[in-house]
Write a structure and sequence with these properties.
This protein is mainly beta. The chain has two domains: about 180 residues, no CATH class; about 150 residues, no CATH class. The strands form two sheets. It has a 15-stranded mixed beta sheet that branches. Strands 10-11-15 form a three-stranded antiparallel beta sheet, with no helix packed on it. The longest helix has 14 residues. The two termini are about 45 Å apart.
């Protein structure tokens, strides 16, 4: 129970958004996890929308998402003292205003935040890492006893760097569901409109982060790095799925932070597990350094790849059609769903649907 309650605090954290090497001993802070400030965001080397989150955790008993904080003032400050501001989009969500800004490799930056009814917060200095190329990403099939699983694998070039190279990967999954084509079934294109196609965005492994580190002095190619491993016994694979894989080159300190979170959140349920705890990030209260703050201000150079799969990829493993009529179920009226479930007849009945096709869908 304690473990499941603790994981709820971090569940949203990994949705924003996803090891090799040694990890330092974790400093745990036990006790009440209610009403703790969380500040998290990634400043990448690519132009675009950069969203930071400012929230407070809820008590375990509520088992709901964190409380967003409105009215915070956030700035990124470079080594010359120049400030770059944010604008609040929604409660708890702050957009970095200069969408064309590109931090320079080797330059240092820190986050400065004033949070209403909380105080003044800053991050430690972070250095923008240089770029690292993700050469390709591709799917694989793994069979474990009676379970067929999808693997996402990556090959990436690891540059020579005496300070070490530290990577993490994040994965976003978009799956497709097409509404039933009643026009074809009833051979009546005048009565029935073309079927609606819906797209759904999910995070396939929200509580895990794949990490890599190397201190080799030579450049080399990292082959078949596993980024994701999930079961193929999933009706979402009946139609097309596209996985967006983002490779983050991060600092040593950020790698340590994610490693420590992995140790806490991915426990095996044994007496050797670390106790539930708070893993400190790099953000502190300027006026009260003992004030506990969760989250991290992260600098990262990015590279992105896309992998597409559907049911045919797993042949001869069979993925059944999730939308077949059930003529024995009298609760499903002949019209308007014609013995299909409402979600199958019209995919817009499924929660969190979008009818806008992602730009990367045909990559």
């Amino acid at each position: 129970m304690i473990k499941s309650r603790f994981l709820n605090i971090y569940s949203w954290f990994f949705l924003l958004l996803f090891c090799g090497g040694c990890v330092k001993e974790i400093s745990y802070e036990l006790g009440n996890q209610e009403n703790v400030l969380v500040i998290y965001g990634v400043l990448s080397d690519k132009p675009g929308r950069r969203i930071f989150r400012v929230t407070r955790t809820n008590p375990f008993e509520k088992q709901v998402d964190s409380n967003p904080i409105t009215g915070a003032q956030l700035f990124v400050i470079d080594s010359k003292g120049k400030k770059y501001g944010f604008v609040e989009l929604d409660p708890g969500s702050y957009l970095f205003q200069d969408t064309l800004f590109q931090p320079k490799a080797g330059e240092t930056y820190y986050l400065d935040a004033v949070v209403p009814n909380a105080g003044h917060y800053r991050s430690d200095l972070e250095v923008m890492p240089g770029p690292t190329t993700l050469d390709r990403a591709y799917p694989g099939v793994q069979k474990i006893e009676n379970d067929t699983r999808l693997q996402l694998l990556a090959d990436t070039r690891i540059p020579s760097d005496p300070q070490g190279v530290y990577l993490r990967w994040g994965v976003t999954r978009v799956w497709q569901r097409t509404s039933v084509d009643f026009g074809t079934i009833f051979m009546d294109r005048f009565r029935f409109k073309p079927p609606i196609v819906c797209y759904f965005t999910v995070f396939p492994d929200p509580n895990g982060v794949r990490l890599f580190s190397s201190k080799r002095q030579d450049q080399f190619e990292l082959k078949e790095q596993e980024i994701l491993n999930i079961t193929a016994a999933d009706s979402k694979f009946f139609e097309k799925n596209v996985f967006e894989i983002i490779q983050y080159r991060i600092s040593f300190n950020a790698h340590e932070y994610w490693s420590n979170l992995n140790k806490v959140t991915n426990q095996a349920g044994t007496i050797f597990d670390p106790p539930p705890a708070t893993v400190r990030g790099n953000i502190y209260n300027v006026d009260n350094p003992k004030d506990r703050t969760l989250g991290y201000f992260e600098l990262a150079s990015l590279d992105t790849a896309y992998v597409s799969v559907d049911a045919t990829f797993f042949t001869p493993f069979y993925i059944p059609d999730p939308c077949t009529p059930d003529y024995t179920n009298r609760s499903l009226a002949p019209a308007p769903t014609y013995y299909y479930t409402a979600e199958c007849a019209y995919c817009t009945n499924i929660k969190n649907h979008s009818t806008i096709r992602p730009k990367f869908w045909f990559r």
